[in-house]
Amino acid sequence: MKKPFSIKIGGPAGKGVKVSGLVLARALSRLGFSTFSYSEYPSLVRGGHNTYQVCFSSEEVFSIIKKIDLLIALNQETIKLHQKELDQSSLILYDPEQIKLPKGKLIGHYLALPFNRLAQEAGGQSIMANMVSLGAILTLSDQPLSTLEEIIEQSFKKKSQQVVQLNQKCAQAGRDFVNKKLAKFKKEIDQPKVKKKKLVLTGNEAAALGGLAGGLQFYSAYPMTPATSILHYLAAKSREIGIVVKHAEDEISAVNMAIGASFAGARVMTATSGGGLCLMAEAIGLAGVSETPLVVINSMRPGPALGMPTWSGQGDLQFSLHISQDEFPRILLAPGDAQETFQLTKSSLQLAEKYQLPVLILLDKYLSESDFSCQPFSSKHFHQRYFLLEKINNEADNFFKRYSLDQQAISPRPLPGQPGGIHCCNSYEHDEFGLATEEGRMRNLMMEKRMAKLALLQEEIPAQPIFGSEKAQIGLISWGSNKGSIRQALTGLKGVKFLHLNWLWPFPKEQVSRFINSVKKAICLEQNQTGQLALLIREQTGLEVENLLKYNGRPFWPNEILEGVKGITRLRKKGRK
Amino acid sequence: MREVNQYDSHLKPTWCPGCGNFGIFTALKEALAQLKIKPHKVAIVTDVGCSGNNADFFKAYTLHALHGRALPPAAGIKLANHQLTVLAIIGDGGCYGEGLTHLINLMRGNHDITVLVHNNHLYSLTTGQYSPTTPKGTVTKSTPDGSIEVPLNPVALGLANQAAFVARGYAFSQEHLKSTLTKAIRHVGFSLVDILQPCVTFDKNQTAAWYQERVFKLKKKFSSRQEAFTEALREDKLGLGIFWQEKRPAYHQELKVLEGKPLIAKPIEKVNLGKLIEEFI
User: β-strands A474-479, A496-501: how paired?
Assistant: First the structure.
């Protein structure tokens, strides 16, 4: 497998690093490449050091790689900070009229390209310098400007044809400068064989679309990085698609509003990050005991407390498994990429309604905010409604046994306003009508009714994806967004297979046991300090696995996985001697 | 009276004999009966506390919420189905303490819910600790040397915070309370009804006799929020009735997506995302 070509743009916040990066990714995707893009930024609005990295290849790209082939430095800091990611073949583009090269030994070829001046000479403003650099980047990567020009046209035609032309001229100025003065640095890149339409979107956008595909009607949330862009997307589209989106006064209100709307019959979802999830803890228990459908997305960032807002981590697995006091059934999902995020968020709304329980979805900053390229999602989605009643055979103003013990675990759910369905949706332990009770026998019956859902859910757990050769003797196990980095690493590992878990609860016990028993060595990769999935595996299967852990806020790099896995297996051999 | 009994569940209220909750319970049922709202068309969200136990005694769609959190689910219910009559029953602890932010913010949003605050100036279900409306210096189990805080003034707060409907009731002026509640429920938008009530078990100071000396029925309609505010700040006497009412579109009326049919009446059996997905190519 060929290594992806890796481009990084670095500069201060407010310089359009992210916007131009995304345009580049989309232009490459439209040329037929598979792309993966990742951005890093500190938690501030202006200044600081921001980067956007695009990796692309004619073959599928699963994650970023550490090495940078082409670095675009919008400030001097970018050159200093990324020396370790460069090698002698790397190209570094910088504007000699804006920044000076740092002193001392520098790695790679430093190509002076006056972005600002070229933009002005083309008749544009300095803000269009980014277009000059995009033109230069594509040309150095031996690619045409056709798709970039198309994107410019689509983005700016609302402003005026003149703005379109100026931006296109700037891109052409970048291309012409490279062709004239830097032609010998052009990289040869394998062209994609087929040009298929692909989406370029973040995990959060996939979650928002997945929610809509799942029939989402009511979304309430409070902004918290890295979950916020779900709120932004849904709020922007709410009128067009006819859903209610409410920015609530806090996370407690957001989740309790959602529960109210769900009680009234809407399909609901909320999203937050760790600190917000802490505030939602009690309400998740309310959804559990009152059997009210609820979907909660937790986009993880390193904690505890405020932690590192704009960085990535997987420290909330055990918290999410146990969130809220006492016991109630829940589903815990952990998609690994945009495609899975779309599918599982869609399923989560159906499952929440079908099983009348809270469904938690774990994303993380890396998944939420990276731009994935993937096959277009299907546009048409069909739903059945679960356990709602067309007509109730009861006097209009009589009580209804909403929590009837006659059914197995799940009982029909009348909606407020419906004649004959009166009941109480109760935070307290309750009887079949929902009215509070402290009677021991009824408590046991209701507890058993709720917990019986876990057995029914066994049927829903899909086979978890396994990558690599079945006969491999080393088995990697992981969950969530590590999927991409591990798949990228697998391309350089022989005799290794990988079990990716996107259903964490109810736990796919049998499949995990079979997988661990099929290898000589099982290694669990996670972004937390204690190996929370490994603990869960031990609890559920009694089997031990090795840990490969990282918790500095950065995602796994494929080469770290390569070295880590090799290190662990070498140790094993030594130990045998 | 049959019409009032239609809202009774099969469980009998468990409040202390002589508790003001009985009066509020009856006044509310009478108001609903007068407005001819059928039990199955009413959604009542109750908080936690003595008043919260109304969830068991009412025959209506009820949601017994978490402590301090009765208002957000009530707003959620209304947004999901704005054809329902949505009420929140909550105590002074839940509304003015644990969940004060919800009161302040949902009031500003003018969500169309009627909030009945059972204000007995104490946490009574937990056996009588001081609450946000307890007078300064009151000795309770959690303030053995007398409470230090000055009490919150709910009516003044509502007036200052742009509530479109602010009223005060008294549990033992049942007929008057019924009339206030009827207007509050009929009012489209956020209605705050602060209902004074003695706690017969734990409050030896603010007894029924104490209230009888202070409460009076407001006679005139105030011509401005400022005028109503001045009355609300009075401490020697406690006016009962509507302090302020103004017509303003409710939250759900300002949402374009909720024009016409309620949210839950819009079918989700078929979803087409074609246009949205296209934007990501």
Answer: parallel
